[in-house]
Amino acid sequence: MSGHIQVTPASFDGAVVCVTLSHPGKLNAMSRTMWRELRSVFESLHSTPAVRCVLIQGEKNSFCAGGDISEYPAFRFDEAALREFHESDVWGGLSAMLACDVPIVALIEGACMGAGMEIASCCDLRIASASAQFGAPIAKLGFPMAPREAALVARAAGELTAREMLLEAAVLSAAEMKARGFLNRVLADDAVAASAEASAQRIASLAPQAARLNKQTFRHATVAVQVSAIAYQYADSPEHREGITAFLHKRKPQF
Fold first, then answer.
1. Is residue 200 part of a domain?
2. How many CB atoms within 10 Å of residue 8?
3. Of 80, 104, 110, 112, which has fewest CB within 10 angstroms of its CB?
């Protein structure tokens, strides 16, 4: 099973919609199918006037552990296929979230790694459980974060935090991420869901047009990132192959 994106009403009148990342057995790691579904979901929500707030979460107490690495050997070692994955599948999903005028609240529990950091970075409010962990340790896999994705995380989490995650493979606690300004609130594990749901309901109770216009204002202030022609030339590099192969074979990579 390649995982999927679930969409369910979270309030009786449909004003709050819950989007759930679901990939059983993989801590909701994002597959290519899930990235494409994410795009479709948020394009639809953007065009649905009745929806006033989106609550996004992961299934079973984990937000998203990153990308589904089991899929990577099929496309990551070819430059054109790698570019297509990041610029169409991944950025398609993320850009649909960024372009969505409906406010998005992230309920973050457990692992928020790599793709999870990117998805969380697209949200307007981020509320996490005390035990949640954050990072993008892809240096262990032998490849960088794609340019647009890295810029997105750096804007939301801060450049120093992004550098620490990408260069040092640092994994940070919810308390540390709150102190660095990435999170709005950190709550006990058994209280975080209720807090995030209450936040979404508060947003939904306020003027929807004002909320959408505020989102447009914030979006227009964002600087676009240009992707260079050489951004994905590492596709067939030895360390890229070694990092992913070592992960799939459950051994330490030799860089």
1. no
2. 9
3. 80
CB-CB contact of 112 with 21 (8 Å): no
- Residue whose C-alpha is closest to residue 33's, from 59, 62, 66, 3: 3
What backbone phi and psi angles, to 5 degrees, belong to 2?
A: -95, 10
- 228: which DSSP letter? P
Instruction: Tell me if 103 is assigned to some domain.
Output: yes
Closest CA to 22 of 73, 69, 67, 57: 57
Q: Which residues pair with 134 in a beta bridge?
A: 112, 172
The beta-strand segments (E) located in the chain are 4-9, 16-22, 53-58, 104-108, 111-113, 125-129, 133-135, 171-173, 185-187
Number of domains in the chain: 1
123-160 residue pLDDT tens: 999 999 999 999 999 999 999 999 999 999 999 999 99
